[in-house]
Amino acid sequence: MRAVIVAAAVAFIISLFGTPIAIRVFTALKAGQPIRTVGPASHQGKKGTPTMGGVAFIIATVVAYAAGHVALTTLPERQIAQESPTMTALVLLGLFVFCGVVGFLDDFLKVRRRNSDGLSAKGKLLGQLIVGGAFAIVALYVKSTNGETVASERISFIRDISWLDVGKVGSVLVFVFVIMAMSNGVNLTDGLDGLATGASILVLGAYALIGFWQYRHWCGDSDYARANDYCYQVRDPLEIAMIAAAAAAACVGFLWWNTSPARIFMGDTGALGLGGLIGGLAVATRTTLLSVIIGGLFVIITMSVVIQIISFKTTGKRVFRMSPLQHHFELAGWSEVNIVVRFWIVAGICVAIGLGLFYSDFLAVMG
Asked: I need a labelling partner for 300 at 20 to 30 A (CA). Which of 55, 73, 146, 329 fits?
């Protein structure tokens, strides 16, 4: 637990004090966020606010992970941990960083062209596909010394579903889909000050709890596995907990500057990076389908876009005043702060339901 706390504390401090530096740097570089003319008029006042702020909390998380490992070397539990850095950490942090790189390219092109046209939709999806595919292969084909891989060949809910074995190729496809779905879901949610940041904190916090719980009931802990009939068949759960906690804490530090009125935006750099990390956490903890509930707000907002597109293309009519969903409520007269707080509440309810299902499964098996 000490290592997780150290990682979280370091991430929070670096993000809290590093984000103002990012604000000054991006302001000096004139890396201001272009605002589309289509949309709520109130957004025009945000024009010029520095973007690419995701760089701050991505760096904070990577540094905090290293700090957590320094703390880990002092613990007696060290014998349960594996090589440093573990393959799980390389996959999760790799997704965080390289999905962030795809977003950074998009943000850079927007800033350079002085409009909201960054990477094309196809270009962005191709970048996500390449990153997701590369790390899917690593997650499915590189085994640890005990034979475990980061991802599984089975579809998982709260743990692997034995009869849903899709093989390695199928698992790679599922992995890529989860990464692309989550990264785009967080990106669509990132439209109001602090909205995606706050929702991501809740989801990442949930995965920090899940990772640590799995570590305390881990099949890799031979003493626990011998004494109990049930354990979690995952790889490196303590690493998962450290990374999720560090990312959540880094987002808390960033939220200090990103909440309304935002001094900096995370941009696609942060949104795609966070989505990639959350998708990776879902696969690594064997909670792929449960992530639909835990990340319920991202799913709801994504579905609002899908419904709007299908409705307009088939009937010529719009279901919502504007999509994603948060802009519908803006045009309905809700204030930005009210929308953000209420959506955070929805995100919190989804996280609570997801954690409740996860724990109830444990009680059912152990009871």
From this structure: 55
Would 350 be classed as within a structural domain? Answer: no
Q: Is residue 359 part of a domain?
A: no
Copy the structure tokens of residue 136.
């899917």
Query: Could you tell me the two tokens for 318?
Result: 């719009």
Q: Residue 192 carries which side chain, given as an amino acid letter?
A: L
Tell me which H or E stretch contains 203: helix 195-216
Give CA–CA dist 363/367, Å, rounded.
5
Report pTM. Answer: 0.93
Instruction: Give the start-end residues of each E strand in 81-216.
Output: 154-156, 160-165
∠ CA(60), CA(6), CA(159), 5° rounding? 85
Question: Span 190-194, mean pLDDT?
Answer: 92
Which tokens hold the place of 220?
């890799």
- Which residue range is the domain that position 149 belongs to? 2-291
Q: How many domains are there within the chain? A: 1
At residue 271, the 3 state secondary structure works out as: helix
The model's pLDDT over 346-363, given as tens digits with 9 standing for 90+, comes to: 999 999 999 999 999 988
